Amino acid sequence: MLLFNPITSLSVPLTLSPKIHYSPSLSSLKKHPSFLTNKNHNPTRRKLLIVQAKGEDSADGPDRLISAICYFYPFFDGIQYGKYVITQFTPIQVLIQPLFPAIKVFKSFPLNGFLVFLTLYFVVVRNPNFSRYVRFNTMQAIVLDVLLIFPDLLERSFNPKEVAKVAYCC
Question: Domain map of the chain by residue range?
Answer without folding.
Answer: 61-169
